[in-house]
Structures are given as C-alpha cells and as structure tokens.
Amino acid sequence: MHKAWALIVLLLVCRLPIHAQEEEDDPGYIEGIPTDDWEGYMPDLYARGDQTFTISMGITTPLFFLHQGNVINHNFTPPVGGTGQIVYTRFLGPHVFFGFEIGVKFHYTLQENTLFFIPIGARGGWQFIIRRFEFPLYMTVGFSPQRVLEASYTGLFLKWGGGAYYRFNPDWSFGLTTEWSWYPQWPRETNDEGNRVRVRSKDVYGNILGITLSARYHF
C-alpha cells in the first residue's frame, strides 16, 4: 500500500514541470499571461527600452497672434485647419520618455490660399498610469518650415501637450491628445551694409491649439 502511494506522488512530481512547460509554449500565452485573461490584466509600468510609435490626425485652430505685444488678425478663415503627425518614443525608465516627431499643419487664409507648417522636433516627457489608462505629458522643441504661395520662413517652434490613452491590448492603445504650439517669426532683412539683421518691428508670435485622435503601437 505504501509503495502504491509513493508511486502516485512520484508521478505527480514528475508531471508538474512538464505541465508548466506546456503552458509556457502555448501560443495562447503572452509573457506568461493567458491571452484570454487580458480583460482582467493591468499593464505594468514601462521598463527601460520600451518603445511606442504613434500616428495622430485631427484639427487645429489659431488661438491668437501677437505683434509688438498686441493681438492681431491672423487672417485664417475658417478658423479651423488640419494636422497630422507621427511620433516615435523610447522609455528611459518607468515614467520618462524621449523621442522625435514630424508632422504637418495647414490653414486657409482670407484670400483662399493655404499656409503650411511642417514641424520637426525632439520630444521629451513623463507618463503616469491608472489601471489601463495612460497619461503622457510632454514638450517638443524643434524647427518648422512654413510656406504660403511664394513666401517661406523656417524657424523655431515649441509645443506642450498631453494625452489620455486606453490600453486596448498588449500591442495597441487609443486616445485623445491636446497640444499648444508656439510659432515665433523673427524676420531678417539685408541692411545697407549687406548684412542680414533681425527686424524686431516685424516679429510675430503665433499660438495654435491642436486636438487629435491617436493610435499608439507598443513594442
């Protein structure tokens, strides 16, 4: 009788590692988590080296333009344009990330012409997570070629933004992003000595708000 019980215990002990290996090799498991249980799974904090790739599309509206401290008419009609961008980020730790972005903005003028912005910049930020909701806050610094008809200008731009994303599954999250962009224009002209100098009397500071829908891929 004792030999029979000893044999049963031996078989169970030998069976456990085999069963565990089968679960790990099962394609229904993702990093040890059954895919069927994703609905109840709470994503962990990000680790160093985690990356995201984001595609966003939406609308922009000029808030106000300043010239010598006064608000001026920006001559955009309708006061709503379009925007789109792609963003790559890499996490340096659980919350801090860094990356780069490129996008396009356009607005229509009173004369039915189109003003284009192509902002290109480096992005850095901080993200916090509440259950399956992720909230990145960031700032972008870069340059932006701008063009309307034959007139063109390339200069600095700064952008502050924040988003709210829902982690749909291990690979994708979807959300809404709001951004405030600052576009200073510091024109230069050639003086009598042949030098290019800044003409401060023609400085203009544009402030533009953007709202986009975003899809973010995690890898």
Structure description:
The strands form three sheets. Strands 3, 4, 5, 6, 7, 8, 9, 10, 11 and 14 form a ten-stranded antiparallel beta sheet that branches. A two-stranded antiparallel sheet has the order 1-2. The radius of gyration is 27 Å and the shape is elongated. The chain has two domains: 39 residues, no CATH class; 168 residues, Porin (Beta Barrel). The termini are far apart. The chain is built from one helix and 14 strands; from the N terminus they run αββββββββββββββ.
The count of β-strands is 14
Poorly predicted parts:
6-36
Mean pLDDT, rounded to whole units? Answer: 82
**Count of structural domains:** 2
**Cα-atom Rg, whole angstroms?**
27 Å
Structural class: mainly beta
CATH topology of the largest domain: Porin
Q: What is the subunit arrangement here?
A: single chain
Count the helices. How many?
1
The main β sheet shows up as: 10 strands, antiparallel
Report the portion of residues in β strands: over 45%
